[in-house]
Amino acid sequence: MIAELSAASADLGETLDGILPRANGQIEQRLYQAMRYSTLGDGKRLRPFLVLSSAGLFKVSRRSALRVAAAVEMVHSYSLIHDDLPAMDDDDLRRGKPSCHKQFDEATAILAGDALLTQAFEVLADEDTHPDPRVCTDLVRALARAAGPHGMVGGQMIDLAGEGQSFDQAQVTHLHLLKTGRMFAFACEAGAILGKAPKSIRLALRSYAHDMGLAFQIKDDILDVEASSEELGKTAGKDVDQEKSTFVKLLGLDQAREQARMLCDQAINHLNCFDGEAEPLRAVARFVVERGR
Length: 293
Ligand code: GRG
Known about the structure:
Helix content: over 70%
Bound molecules: geranylgeranyl diphosphate
CATH class: Mainly Alpha
Structural class: mainly alpha
């Protein structure tokens, strides 16, 4: 699985390198440097892998899939840059190096996030991504929904509002469905959009992504207490420090592990409508609950 992730990551790196603006001595070059610093770093690139794997189910062109994968990673990178800012999670470490506002400054980090988010939609709307404008519109709409007020940004608001409060399991589940699940769901559905697959197939992929995304989050909560900052490449133990309601706090470590395994199996079951071609998606579901960072 790690080998497959790294192969996809190398292809994605080349695509991102071609898309992201280059610093060539322009007055605004600091912005370009910050965008590249935060996007070309050492992330797991799970969401791009999901786009490429779902596109692989429908024989979509590699170039289209890579451009959509790049757009997803750009939105993800923006969210991490903004999440690390002092006004939000206030974290100095990301992907094993200083977070964007530490390496540059706060204003540049805000602008780099804004620019990545905006340029991601330009990529999706471009005919280079898909020759059919209806497919491009569908991609733009679906990513906007996943990243916006009813998705990641809404989830982030709930997360911030919940600091120091006790959420129950349903509330924590809802928070993570929005904050991380919707972006995973877009990544999985994107291949089906590119391949003009029927609604029932899109639904199966969304259901897979929601269960897998929740399993990912539970594992994230477990790693936050079990792994070191060095292993994670980000500050460990923050959930406790910020008095967040997590799955570990609600369920305890053993039950949290069990719940993640159960969700992983459930995610894989949603793929029963596919044969061997869905093996990368099955493998990634297992990987998210077994990973060490
Ligand atoms: C600021 C609008 C806005 C949203 C921020 C994604 C997010 C919302 C915050 C990140 C903080 C966090 C720890 C979220 C929980 C899990 C998560 C999304 C972790 C980061 O994703 P990975 O592990 O990161 O895929 P890499 O670095 O591998 O890309």
